Amino acid sequence: MMPRIETLTVGGSPMEVFLYEPAGTGPTPAIVLAMHIPGHDGIEKDEFTLKTAERLAEAGYVVAVPFIFHWWPKSEARDLKNREFRDDWTIADLTVTMDLLQGMERVDPARVGIVGHCWGGRVAWLGAATDTRYRACVVFYGGRIRLAMADQGIPAIERAGDIPCPVAGFFGNEDSNPSPEDVDIYEAALEDAGVPHEFHRYDGAGHAFQNFPSPERYCPAQSEDAWGKALAFLGRELRP
């Protein structure tokens, strides 16, 4: 499946958005897919994110993948992007991506969710907490949710009470970022905020257990179980 590429301008910087559209006609639910850090040098080089977008489109969703690392040259070192990553920039990226989806004729603007893995899992939490238009949020092993980023804003977890939609989370019990203790804290924050949620935890799985381009991390059985549960969750929340 070949994406269509739109270029949006955020804070004076051009940002690519890869768009995947399912067969058929609308109105169709949509997903903002937040990239993980291995895609820092270009969506086109991020095999996992491209395949994830295709899989969501095949399930019937319009999928938008914003290149949230556009603030730096693609050739810039990953470590620098890690250190300088800012929530305020990311919120702006997600807002214009949501606006793009909302303006598409085949998208039902009342049925948009956000999904992310790893770094993108934190971005998905942040996006849901800063835009009331989301109707579902899926976090796959998102780390650093308890931390603030380089803009010295508040930690993403402190925004739990602003999340307007149900959250599904998927985590490996052998992960260290987030650790099982971190996941307990995530769940408690959602519980305290009254946010509906379902968390799924997998024995024998560590970080990035869905990341098939990394055989040392990929756990096929746990990954497929998580996919089935995530698609069921999105179906319940975003289908009429």
Automatic annotation (TrEMBL):
GO molecular-function term, one example from the UniProt record: hydrolase activity
Residue ranges of every copy of the Dienelactone hydrolase domain listed in the record: 15-236
Pfam families linked to this entry: DLH (PF01738)
InterPro entries: AB_hydrolase_fold, Dienelactn_hydro, Dienelactone_hydrolase-like
Domain of life from the UniProt record: Bacteria
Regions that span the bilayer: none
Coiled-coil regions, chain positions: none
PANTHER family reported for this sequence: ALPHA_BETA-HYDROLASES SUPERFAMILY PROTEIN (PTHR46623:SF6), CARBOXYMETHYLENEBUTENOLIDASE-RELATED (PTHR46623)
Protein name (record): Carboxymethylenebutenolidase
Organism for this UniProt entry: Donghicola tyrosinivorans
